[in-house]
Amino acid sequence: MDTARPPLPYNDLLAQQRSRAPALARSSVDERKERLERIATYLGNDDHRQRLVRALSSDLGKPAVESLLSEVGAVHGHIKYITQHLQRWMEPRRVATPLSMVGTVNYIYYEPKGCVLILSPWNYPFNLAVVPLLYAMAAGCPVVLKPSEASPATTDYLKRMVEELYDPHEVTVVEGEADTAAALTRLPFDHIFFTGSPAVGKKVMAAAAENLSSVTLELGGKSPCVVAPDVDIQKSARNVAWGKFFNAGQTCTAPDYLLVHESIAADYLRALTEALHDYYGPDPRASDSLARIVNRRQHDHLSGLLAEALTDGATTAAGGQHDAADRYFAPTILTRVTPAMRIMREEIFGPILPVLTYRTPEEALAVIHGLPKPLAFYLQANDRNFIRRFLAETSAGGTMVNEFFLSQGNPALPFGGVNNSGIGKSFGYHGWVGFCNERSVLERKFFDLSVVYPPYTDRVRRLVERLHRWL
User: Fold this and answer.
1) Which residue among 303, 322, 372, 467 is buried most deeply as judged by most CB within 10 Å?
2) Do 156 and 258 belong together in one domain?
3) Which family does it belong to (predicted)?
4) Catalytic residues
């Protein structure tokens, strides 16, 4: 009986891209830069840029300012950084030669891993699709890009842009639901780059393991923000409110909960509430500065978390209103929250901010250590000893002190999680080399080891013993 698996969907697509991979691997620095700059030119066209802003508004109700900052601007920034540094990255890197290998030259040669699959999410549907695409193309890899089905307008924009700019043997956008993504992950891609939840990330990793495909997993988790007693309360609260409620809290690095020192908690809550009023007005639903929830499913997830927390004893210090028909969810601040509540065990991914208090650093650290390692860790503090202690006694993909988001705007800093919040890094050199094989090369220039070739006579043995002691 023939027990062979039937051909998987998209086998032909992968075969076509694999046939183009050798040519892309041989492409020059200038050729790779030109491919990236096509996207910059495309976005430089006002009609194209405004069409993207409208697509993001359709999918997420994103304010134009947020779209230009976090989607268009971010992509431009990475294109500029890559084109400035790509020549140096692509050059073989010499490494030290030990004395025992005198006569050889040793270096690292960077070659593309090969065919890449990128699975991108819906919360920043242009940025998080295009940025890994840029680094994969800069590494010389052909790419299959599968955007999220939850952001259809932006997916349509991506597909149209890619079809206008690239040969499908180099870059192809594949549309579809979760079953499409699952079928793609079963194919023998050389590398898979996934952005999404830890639960789905585990499935991607399991599928990749069947083909021993390497992976980069940009996941999420419950990112804490610890507020020290020495902060400028007004300034800190406004910073936190912006960092949390940007894109209606639908950001993998948004602070998922707040730990505020009890000595300033009451004043801090008042300042947070005032910040929300200043940002979104007395009726946030009427504000054109607040994004919407992506779909009914995500709205129901958020409303369920909120309802359960209130039933379990939490109270709303601000917000709480929501409307599934309009995908509206008011910026919400919860107090009287305990670590045992479900809202403190699951990633929220929306505009709900639980606020807990602590008396000592040990109490705050106990809450943080009770959860998996987060993608981001935030400190609002001025005391250097306080900052150093929390850096030393926690683990996270990245940390920001007295700020939000800006580290994601610096391509020189690696971006990614640790364990449950992610595997591998992106951005800058770290993002580029993630799509490369660091190939070790040793070249013999002079001398050789013929003095220790067989037969292993007493003379050879004595020579090896002397060399061993000397080296």
Assistant:
1) 322
2) no
3) Belongs to the aldehyde dehydrogenase family.
4) 218, 252
Residue 2 pLDDT > 70, yes or no?
Answer: no
Q: Are residues 385 and 285 in the same domain?
A: yes
**231 and 167 assigned to the same domain:** no
Q: Which residues of 419-452 are buried (b: 16+ CB within 10 A; e: fewer)?
A: ebbbbbbbbbbbbbbbbbbeeeeeeeeeeeeeee
pLDDT at position 5: 46
CA angle 213, 215, 218 (to 5 degrees): 160
Domain CATH for 287: 3.40.309.10
**Residue 406 — very low, low, confident or very high, per pLDDT cuts 50/70/90?**
confident
Same structural domain for residues 286 and 196? no
Above 90 in pLDDT, residue 407?
Answer: no
Other CB atoms within 10 Å distance of the CB of residue 392: 7
Show the domain range for 102.
Answer: 11-219+422-439
Q: Would strands 171-173 and 191-195 be described as parallel, antiparallel, or unpaired?
A: unpaired
How many domains does the chain fold into? Answer: 2
- How many angstroms from the chain centroid is the CA of residue 266? 34
Q: Is residue 84 part of a domain?
A: yes
